[in-house]
Amino acid sequence: MATQLPELTAAARVRGLVKRFGDRTVLDGLDLEIGAGEFVALLGRSGSGKSTLLRALAGLEPISGGELEVPGTVAVAFQEPRLVPWKRVGANVTLGLDVPDPEAAAAAALEEVGLLGHRDAWPLTLSGGEAQRVSLARALVRRPSLLLLDEPFSALDALTRINVHRLVLDLWERHRPGVLLVTHDVDEALLLADRVLVLESGRIAHQTAVELDRPRQRDHAELIRLRSVLLERLGVAP
Questions:
Q1: Alpha-carbon span 161 to 105, nearest angstrom
Q2: How far apart are CA 138 and CA 128, in angstroms?
Q3: Which tens digits make up the pLDDT trace of 63-98?
Q4: What's the order of all strands across the beta sheet hosting 24-34?
Q5: Sign of CA dihedral 80, 40, 173, 143
């Protein structure tokens, strides 16, 4: 379980993390620190344990060994928006949220993601991009110190994905939570993150800083170089 340590300056700190499923060890002595306000992307082959790590940080997956410290509030946006179909959009945003005025909180969060006019809509009337925006509003209304994103853009079409990328960066720059983005998309990781990690054999096998101003262009020489390095680490020919 995550230990609450108010003096910890990082958004999350992991030391020697182990996670086993039966005889299979998915995370094997993993070390990781996410700084307060840092945007980190995590790459890895399918089955490498990326989502397992994210779920452990969220407190949704018990760990088998090691230390895991998350001192503040955690919020998660998953690949599927996971909206409750029988509750309107505003009620979905504040689901489980204990605040004096949930309607005002929902309105403020939806305005930030450009969906204030959809507050009384039913989830099934939303497009995929709109539903993911509601999911982000639901995460950020909790003012998390750690925001976990589990491939939230993978089901979106290319144009919608670009728009949601811009929205996520705008919200991150406004609120500055620590972010861990789990993704299979190398370009996405390089466009969004301050630091890109590669998970391999249950540990962080490689990391690289992306020291470029945002917004970033895919054809920037440094991004092309970093893409080649990351693809090689992932076993893919550049």
A1: 26
A2: 15
A3: 999 999 999 999 999 988 999 999 999 999 999 888
A4: 24-34, 12-21, 65-69
A5: positive
Per-residue pLDDT band for 210 (boundaries 50, 70, 90) equals: very high
Determine the distance from the C-alpha atom of residue 94 to the mean position of all C-alpha atoms in its chain, rounded to a whole number.
19
CB 6 within 8 A of CB 73: no
Q: Which residue from 70, 72, 77 is spatially nearest to 93, judged by alpha carbons? A: 77
Give every CB contact of residue 125 below 8 A, 6+ residues apart in sequence. Answer: none
Angle at Cα 148 formed by Cα 145 and Cα 150, nearest 5°?
A: 170
Q: Are strands 178-182 and 39-44 parallel, antiparallel or unpaired?
A: parallel
Task: Say if residues 112 and 80 touch (Cβ distance below 8 Å).
Answer: no
Which among 183, 148, 136, 178 has a CA at the least distance from the CA of 56? 148
Rg (CA), the chain: 18
Q: Which residue has the tokens 């890109």?
A: 196
Query: Is-contact 174 142, C-beta < 8 A?
Result: no
Please give the domain boundaries of the chain with CATH numbers for all domains. Answer: 12-233 (3.40.50.300)
Strand spans (E) along 130-235: 146-150, 178-182, 195-200, 203-209
Task: Cite the beta strand spans of the chain per DSSP E.
Answer: 12-21, 24-34, 39-44, 65-69, 74-77, 146-150, 178-182, 195-200, 203-209
Instruction: For residues 107 and 97, give the distance between their C-alpha atoms in angstroms, rounded to a whole number.
Output: 14
- In b/e form, how buried is each residue of 40-72, taking b as 16+ CB within 10 angstroms? bbbbbeeebbbbbbbbbbbeebebeebebbbbb
Segment 177-187 shows an average pLDDT of 95
